[in-house]
User: Fold these one by one.
Assistant:
Number 1:
Amino acid sequence: MADFILTTGDLAMFNPTFGSAIVTVIPGNLTGTGKGMINKKMVCVDGDEKTVMVPGCPYITASHPIPGVGMLSIASLGGDQKAKRTKSNHKPVLLKGSTFTAKFQVMAPAQQPTPAGPIPDPVPQYSGTGTFITTNMRVKGT
């Protein structure tokens, strides 16, 4: 099924719920490395999603209400987000699609207040989802 091709500057929007963690999300920017251009912006190809890294995102959990900080990234694309036929520089182009799997890597753990002192969140990483927002409303790939 045809869908809009992603280009440089398009956004990876992360959903705030990452399992038991609630993350204050910041959108990530895509940078295209494909040969083609749409609206004077480079197209995104397979592998470009791996460069999306969003550090400095605060988070909390129900048991750890003192905020910690981590980094958002894209763990894997959804099955409808990589073109099967449309390629640029011999690589499949990336499509808007539905949802991708996201990863939240804890850098500074959230804390649980106790009379004996704060207890850090023991979970080093959380999984979540996200979607792409594109400015390309003209060119589709399959």
Note: The first strand starts at residue 3 and ends at 4.
Number 2:
Amino acid sequence: MTQPDPSSLAQSLLLAPAWARVGLTAPVQRIREQAAAELAQTIIGALEGSQGRYDARQMALPL
């Protein structure tokens, strides 16, 4: 297994669904767990080289 590139992983996390990024701070444990699972899928997809379920039609909202 090769060492993952931090910049590509960071970019993958930024392309992850916004609900998952925000969901990590939710007060409900179930939502935090679902958000963590979604982000984990994003990281695995980046390591495998797949684009995942990113939808180009999703509107990017500034944070």
Note: Residues 7-48 form one domain.
Number 3:
Amino acid sequence: MSTLRETLDDLGSALRERPDDLLLEIGAGGELLVARLRVFVASLLMLLPGLNWLGGGNPNESLAGLAGALGVLLLSMAWLRLALRSRRPAWLPMFSSCFDVSLVSAVLALLGLWGSPVATLNSTVVWSCYLLAIFATAMRHDLRVTVVAGSLAVLQSALLWLAVVSLSSEPLVSAEYGSVSAATQLQRLVLLAVATLVAAVIVFRSQRLTQWSSTDGLTGLHNRSFLNAQVPTKVEAARREGRTLCLALVDLDNFRHINAELGHLAGDRALRHAVAVIRRELGREEPMIRVGGEEFVLLLPLPIGAAWERMEVLRRKLEAAPFLPEPGVEPRRLTLSAGLACCPQDANDLSGLMKRADERLRAAKAAGRNRVMARDGE
């Protein structure tokens, strides 16, 4: 089991990492859910000012609440429109999370300007929305968003406290909200910090579980679960937007001979060596997925000709980097064969692309291996 220190160290490391594509896709779904919840909650908030006024509350506070609720509703609808777009802006989770936190601060400030300054610091209902905003960031599955939003909540809450104390010339006491206590305000800041830490740990654990379930333990590549869950979405997006996306089915040639002659441990090292050589040449938009023993899928956002040239570079790189089983043992040359299929020319779905790529991979094997086939009959 991890100690608290190890967990915090892992959190620090995770903050420096960009979430992988699977987590970003899950986070996009969470962002859409939060956007819909935000509109729903904003609609309910429109009722609160009227209830406050009918219950004998301060008219100025009711007016501030109405203005805030209306602003929330309009802006929430704008965020929802952005979240519904097929290509969501990359900045949307961070900005919308900071918006939620800042909106709470704005409503608290309005309570002080149009009502009692004590309401800014002692309003329990509105202040609790900070906690809702922090915990809602967990649905984005991005640790950086959670930490930034939580830190912003602590900062803005502290600034509101300092502003009210420095600008008020009278004792901060209210019959409705009580008196402002430094101890209470410090406790609220600590509570926000703790809520941020708890939400961050939840996101971190969720990220790790997601990565473990979609990652091959031997090579660190995405596994078949990622292929089945995420690649169809990428293919559909490419088809819808008129972009070309090529799928390469790659197989290491005669790899079973290494396992038979050198043993499975050496075979595992050879497999990791081949993956390392190939991955050094790939960009972030070119994921590599292990789908079998020594079989891989590569996604290349390129036309068929450029994709063939890209695969040829990878083939030559691997051939030029022999595997050394151990000191004193003759290096073993590794080669690959690959079949290419492109969307939309060859197929419009993952199943069709895999089928055409497999046919061309078999043709490459039959033609002597160590080659890339991009068209039928080559």
Note: The chain is about 65% helix and 10% strand.
Number 4:
Amino acid sequence: MNEAVRDPAQPIIEIENLSISFFTRKGEIPAVMDFSCTVMPGEAMGIVGESGCGKSTVSLGIMRDLSNIGKIVGGRIKFQGRDMGEMSDEELRAIRGNKIAMIYQEPMASLNPAMKIGQQLMEVPLIHDKVSKEEAYNRALEMVRAVKLPDPERMMRSYPHQLSGGQQQRIVIAMALLSKPALLLLDEPTTALDVTVEAGIVELVKGLGEKFGTSMIFVSHNLGLILETCDRITVMYSGEAVETGKIEDVFDRMRHPYTQGLFRSIPLPGADKNSRPLISIPGQ
């Protein structure tokens, strides 16, 4: 990891009463209200909720990547004990992409179509760690192997369009992990993939998290993925965190009606539609 010693008792990230609004011509639109969550070293936190509930906005808020209309209007985010709001632009740049890495929904958004995969991967150690080209190539190749891609040398020589969607997403994960981040943000990383590829990526992320000791925030509307990959879960509804805790605790004692509705809406194999109908959640 980046630091030789990391205090296991200190959270990697603490989000306290975070509120984020978007300021448009129509005025202020609150996207996240009073959101709090803590992620400890090596822990995977799942943020789950429906489309538009503000879960992706939380991860963009951590990255300070809210475009020019989004603003943090309340609360604070502390990374490894330091308030990110008090950091200079230079410090934030050093953290982003290095200590905090993000994987987006659409792999092609993170890849340059005009550059070979190898060059794009090598940029990370060349820029962040100032290593030699040979060392950068070896690290990149090793990471392509770690994300279980066939024929790593050929992958390094390929352009992004020559890879399938699942292979592209694995390259993006490799790129994110090359800087050995303390925190990895995954924003619905399997949305664009089919189910069998999705299962492989989930298995991969889980294994890499354990191997590299990376803390993760996994944003998804897919409860199954969260239950499979995370230690703790935060349920978001309409911009607020309505429930949080260990997966099994939330699973056993669902207090909020939205969480109950979410769990009831998971289709079960072999379930009879009459005895156990799928229940939709009323309201907007």
Note: The CA atoms of residues 14 and 38 lie 4 Å apart.
